[in-house]
Amino acid sequence: MTHRSILCFGDSNTHGTRPLAVLGEMARLDHSHRWPGVMAAALGPDWSVIEEGQPGRTITHDDPVEGAHKNGLTVLPALLETHRPLDLVIVMLGTNDLKHRFAVTPLDIARSAGRLLSVIRASNAGPNGAAPATLLICPPPIVEAGSLSEMFEGGAAKSQVLASRFAAIAEMMQVPFLDAGACAEVDLLDGIHLTEASHGRLGVSVAEAVLAQFS
């Protein structure tokens, strides 16, 4: 089998950040318990999985509080060049765009994800200078609870319709789509970060989606 490379482009839930009891905590799950690590184990040695999860990463926003470097659209072209050739880029972003400070609709969050897909599609970061394949994942719904509740005020209701908006963008762009909310859920400690069990279920689900895409 041909060796393949996957870039997982996401935020703290790709990074494996543990739920926060208080703001500022920086604990992280072990590699084997983070969903990209679970996926890598399920796929086997013929696949290389690159974790590119940044806590606080947005899809298209320079964060006025946490810094302009959180903008995924800005950093993505450099990462595509850094890690090429890539067979597949998995995008799972949108949670941080739900923060109250950005005041954007679910539709605009989904359309922003479409911009990332367009950047990947227009790149030469795939095998032989072609574009990589893509897989769009909608993050699971959030809950306004715990240490992050004020930061994400109003975001829970928006997150409930995010999957349908992402699915529509994926269909329009003819990109494979996965709803993480179908198998994963957030920890009620902070309402944002996945439970460890959810990382495991998500990793297996994404591996199955990847194998189906490359079968």
List keywords for this structure.
single chain; 215 residues; alpha/beta; Rossmann fold; 7 helices; globular
Plain-language structure description:
By secondary structure, the chain is of the alpha/beta class. It has one domain: Rossmann fold (3-Layer(aba) Sandwich), CATH 3.40.50. Helices cover 36% and strands 13% of the residues. It has seven helices and five strands. The protein has helices at 12-15, 35-43, 72-83, 106-121, 155-160, 162-173, 196-213, and strands spanning 4-10, 47-53, 88-92, 133-138, 177-179. A five-stranded parallel sheet has the order 2-1-3-4-5, with helices on both faces. Helix 2 (35-43) packs across helix 7, helix 3 packs parallel to helix 4 (106-121) and helix 4 (106-121) runs parallel beside helix 6 (162-173). The protein is globular, with a radius of gyration of 16 Å. The protein starts with a strand and ends with a helix.
Domain module tally:
1
State the major sheet: 5 strands, parallel
| Average of the residue pLDDT scores | 97
Please tally the helical runs, counting DSSP H or I stretches of 4 or more residues.
7
Instruction: Label the structural class.
Output: alpha/beta
The strand line-up of the biggest sheet is 2-1-3-4-5
CATH topology grouping: Rossmann fold
Strand content: 5-15%
Shape: globular
CATH architecture: 3-Layer(aba) Sandwich
CATH superfamily: SGNH hydrolase
Q: Strand tally, please?
A: 5
Element-level helix/strand string: EHHEHEHEHHEH
- Residue runs with pLDDT of under 50 for 5 or more positions: none
Any idea what the radius of gyration is?
16 Å
Q: Class in CATH? A: Alpha Beta
Oligomer class: single chain
Q: Helix share of residues? A: 25-40%
The N- and C-terminal alpha carbons lie at a distance of 11 Å
